[in-house]
Amino acid sequence: MSNLDFEKPILELEGKIAELRQVESDSDVDIAAEITRMETKVDKLLNQTYGKLTPAQKVQVARHQNRPHFMDYVSGMIDDYTSLSGDRNFGDDQALLGGIGRFQGQACIIMGHERGHDTESRLKHNFGMARPEGYRKAQRLMKLAERFQIPVITLVDTAGAYPGMGAEERGQAEAIAKSIETCLNLSVPIISVVIGEGGSGGAIAIAAADKIYMLEHSIYSVISPEGCASILWRSASHAADAAEALKITAQDIYNMKLIDDIVNEPVGGAHRSKEETVANVAKQIATGLKQVTPWTEDKLKASRRKKFLAFGREG
To answer: What CATH number does domain 59-309 carry, 3.65.10.10, 3.30.70.20, 3.30.70.141, 3.90.226.10?
Structure first.
């Protein structure tokens, strides 16, 4: 999905601008003023369109294949990154990657879902849907962070944990539950950002954090709109209705006080400027780490307990 249906007028204008730039480079005709006028129109359309996205449209943006993925963030904000593989039990899961590195000079463990950018890489990473060994690897890395007393950063982008027979046979539910428990019992800070799609237990398994953020056009839900529509309406054609009812957008979830803040995306979505998106996420993570530093084990656990017990309560 490289093009979004509601972006059609914008894409048409951008195509015309590209054609005019080609004409300008191949001739002596001065059309700079016309190009500038059209670029201004594109900016206006982007602001208008992305300022009033419906929940269903936000789902499309959150799933856009050109959004920055886990390794884009690692490349853009982590120095001296060393990948760590395997759960020391069954094998290595390429859907959930992680390792050790430095974030703005601070040693840390970073992990997250990797979807892949093309057919080959998506198959390799199983479309970001982790198996039990992925969540057991996450537990191993979090415990490693405890050993060295360094913070954990997690980036969430998955439609959900992999529901295949092999995953269920190897204890998918137990692995997710144990991963959530590990997050909640960590003696070091954990900062989580939903960078695309946060689907069900597959997402919360690495997102039970001290600070939880969402990108502006990301989504977070117990079930996909299509799955919800199939259950309630017996038809996935009602996915737009389900997206509205589920309250899955970053704005809805922030209003329900389930996340700490929303990270702004470039106008037109994260897929239009990976560099700016990564910079915005890095800035928010730095703010979150500053708020929980210095830390003590008792203070962190008490704060986490208070945070999650407050979910769903009035006042």
So the answer is: 3.90.226.10
